[in-house]
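Dear Dr. K.,

Following up on our conversation at the group meeting, I've run the structure prediction for Sporulation integral membrane protein YlbJ from Heyndrickxia faecalis. I'm pasting the input sequence below exactly as I used it, so you can double-check it against your construct before we proceed with anything downstream. Let me know if the numbering doesn't match what you have in your notebook.
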Amino acid sequence: MYQSKLKSAILAFSVSIMAISMIVLPDESFKASIQGLNMWWEVVFPSLFPFFVISELLIGFGVVRFVGVLLEPLMRPLFRVPGVGGFTWAMGLASGNPSGAKLTARLRQEKQIDRVEAERLVAFTSSSSPLFIFGAVAVGFFHNPSLGLLFAAAHYAGNIIVGLVMRFYGTGEDTRGPKKKHTFLLKEALLVLHATRIKNSKPIGKLLGDAVMSAIQTLLMIGGFIILFSVFNKLLLYMHVTSVFGMFVSQLLHLAHFSEKLSIPLISGLFEVTLGIQMISEVQESSLLQQAIAASFILGFGGFSIQAQVASILAQTDIRFRPFFLARLLHGFLSAVIIRLVWNPVYLRFFAEKSAWQEAFGMPGGGRSLYARVTDWLEIYGPLFTLSCLVLYIFLYYRACRADQA
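The predicted structure tokens came back this morning:
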């Protein structure tokens, strides 16, 4: 009872302090919210919207269960999750955070996985997209395309190790009985696909409309968290709260023989990944190795902004958040360790002087890289695409309300 009252007091005090800070620092709050809004409607919404819609359609038409049957012999022994986890893993890798959580929650709502399997699955299907790692981090912040290969290798290898570790989680809580032996997988997969499509009696138009509305609702929630944590992070900087925590982090960095100037960027990255990694890349007093290790940790941890998005998605189900948070800590440390292990034998040996992959990721003659051009395209056309989808959402929502009244 006492702990509950103390928690209520702390939450009320914290929110009150943030509200007062926004009143005292209106210009800084406004600039931070604009920064978060630009990130959302230029990059996040255009990048994730197609994946969310397609994933909903694939689930509705039974394609996910079809893939799940085929991948069952692979996913079950490795990660102790059903074969449908393979689809979630692939979509999470392609589209980035928080797609893995969104699809895991959807599969749990469909009762295709139990709670323990869902907690295992969401732990290793949360990752940054290749577009963000190569385009924003490697090219945009570090101006070094070859670093993208190192970041991607450490990030995705770390996620695989997290999945292998999480297979031992919840051993005594498994609710599924012995798994049946599959004889002819393709035939069974086709039967499951057909049965799922028949069971889903919605017309194609209705299914498509529901998929669009579900995707936009989720992205609106994600946008709110991005703007909120952008303001929250900026206010902590101006209130010198980050500096206070930075003193403690500086001591830890000193013990690890890292530059103490990385303390503030690391704390900022714990709240918001993009801002933290950008600040890390601008620390001139640290070596490139130290910057890469710090950035890789932040990429693996994901930041409280992304974790809040995931927590909001998981709250719609019975999936517990704590295993996901512990997995993010493990992913961050594993990614940082992998960067350190491969730095000398891989980066210094092959990429230190001249990137052998420069031609693959950049234009001949030193032109703009592919990921930089994609980022430029999103900055120009991303807001228009986002606004068009919001207009479509308003139209579909209006039709749904009219149908309910009728």
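Two things stood out to me. Residues 119 and 322 are 9 Å apart (CA to CA). Residues 45-171+180-223+304-405 form one domain.

Best regards,
J.T.
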